[in-house]
Write a structure and sequence with these properties.
heterodimer; A: 221 residues; alpha+beta; five-stranded antiparallel beta sheet; 9 helices; disordered C terminus; B: 251 residues; mainly alpha; two-stranded antiparallel sheet; 2 strands; globular; disordered N terminus
Chain lengths: 221, 251
């Protein structure tokens, strides 16, 4: 049960922290970038009454603007696909990346909605100045519980530092989807996986009608 | 002879499970595990989640924190024991210092004053202690009521439960109340995570299993497992990448 509880926090925090748009992405070190954006997003949410009262559209817009530019979704999708990535056509790759991105943003929005005043401990970067692939460590502190580490694996690209994996409590988001993706591809091919993700992201009307009611209950507390 | 035959049958049965579909090598008992998973799920939907939801809705936040801290404080005793068994006496003493300060200044552990004093809470159990000394995790298991585990961690959990100070609480009615309160609080803390899992996973069984196995591996290494090289795939980005062999990194 204790492990389940920790796992819970992990899932909760899976994408809770986030990154703001850097003024000069080339000059900013990755740890400074993570810190600046995390604090900016948390601050924006704390100030926004609409988001706090459960306005998901607005929250997703905020994530879109502040967080997503710092993620390399193509790399994330490729890593989650593993060997199957090389078998996909360019068109399939485009669709997969698009759907995986939508799925992550939806999950992310839910994680942020559950966020409640935890404190952050931004760890100094343990890397050489010449490194182009680093891990930025942030820890989320909570009363009566072990701090939850959030590790961002980041890579230096021509467009600045980009996240290609997030690990919460040692659980890699990308690795966690690898088995799921491989299972679906084995059963119904890459197109099957795309269809699967699409139906998850755009649920049929009946389910969509049930969702808001469920969320209301969640936001009441 | 009969024993051997039984053993042979058992292995045949296990092999039979393993060969149905192309299952995960870490999860040879998947068909059975999925049944237990469904059972746990049904029980959760019928009892645990509704009770936890009521608890979360009607018990004020500070009271829930007191209850959480109280049980966490009791847990620190054996977290300390496990740290010492893992050859980390410094961490173990810190856990016991936590227990000392929280039980006194923190009033029976309901306030986590030790964290504010700089004594960080750790996460240890007997399963991790086995792992620390090289015991492999063995097959993945979903235990009735207890949820995700492995062969190694299941044995660890049995010792955890045996060692749990709550086990010795008498009268039985008080012990049952304490168990129920702890379980309800834990389940209530999981409510948001349950909704997230629902949204994130294509197959909740697989998602939870993989997260659990990754998490346990990380805990055995106290949060610092050996870093694995990032595999490369073609056309991953606009800029050209030197090809490198794929290294599977899920274990």
């Amino acid at each position: 049960m204790k492990t389940m509880k920790t796992l819970a926090r992990i899932l909760l925090l899976l994408l809770v922290t986030s990154f703001a748009r850097a003024q000069a992405p080339q000059d900013v070190t990755p740890d400074v970038l993570v810190k600046a954006v995390t604090l900016e997003v948390v601050d924006l949410i704390a100030k926004d009454k609409e988001i706090q009262s459960g306005n998901r559209t607005k929250l997703i817009a905020l994530i879109d603007e502040k967080v997503l530019p710092h993620f390399n979704f193509t790399a994330m999708t490729a890593l989650a696909m593993g060997q199957n990535w090389n078998k996909a056509t360019p068109e399939q790759k485009k669709l997969l990346t698009q759907e995986f991105r939508t799925l992550l943003v939806r999950t992310y929005a839910s994680a942020l909605a559950a966020y409640s005043e935890q404190k952050f401990d931004f760890r100094p970067l343990r890397a050489k100045a010449t490194d182009t692939d680093v891990t930025v460590n942030v820890r989320v502190l909570q009363q009566g519980a072990q701090p939850v580490p959030i590790d961002y694996n980041m890579e230096k690209t021509s467009a600045g530092w980009k996240v290609y994996d997030v690990m919460v409590g040692g659980v890699s988001l990308v690795a966690n989807y690898r088995t799921e993706f491989a299972n679906v591809v084995r059963e119904s091919g890459i197109d099957g996986l795309i269809r699967n993700l699409q139906s998850k992201n755009h649920p049929p009307a009946r389910q969509a009608a049930e969702k808001p009611a469920e969320r209301q209950g969640a936001d009441k507390k | 002879m009969i024993f051997r035959l039984t053993l042979a049958c058992l292995f045949a049965a296990l092999a039979g499970c393993a060969t149905t579909g192309e299952g995960d090598p870490r999860d040879p008992l998947e068909p059975l595990n999925r049944k237990v998973f469904a059972f746990n799920d049904a029980l959760d939907n019928a009892v645990a989640r509704p009770v936890a939801t009521v608890y979360h809705e009607y018990v004020p936040g500070p009271l829930r924190t007191y209850a959480r801290n109280f049980f966490a404080n009791i847990g620190d005793i054996f977290i300390g024991v496990n740290n010492i068994l893992q050859g980390k006496p410094g961490d173990g003493l810190q856990d016991w210092a936590r227990f000392l300060f929280n039980s006194t200044i923190g009033v029976f552990g309901i306030n986590d004053v030790a964290s504010d004093m700089g004594f960080e809470k750790h996460n240890e159990d007997f399963g991790q202690t086995f792992g620390r000394w090289g015991v492999g995790e063995g097959a993945y298991l979903v235990l009735p009521l207890l949820g995700p585990s492995t062969l190694r961690d299941g044995v660890g959990q049995a010792i955890d439960i045996y060692a749990d100070p709550l086990t010795d609480v008498r009268p039985i009615s008080l012990r049952t109340t304490a168990y129920a309160l702890r379980f309800t609080g834990n389940r209530a803390d999981l409510l948001d995570a349950g909704r997230l899992l629902e949204e994130a996973a294509l197959d909740r069984y697989v998602f939870l299993r993989d997260a659990f196995l990754q998490r346990r591996r990380n805990l055995v290494y106290d949060g610092e497992p050996p870093r694995e090289a990032r595999p490369r795939y073609e056309e991953e980005e606009e800029k050209p990448q030197p090809p490198q062999p794929e290294k599977p990194s899920t274990q």
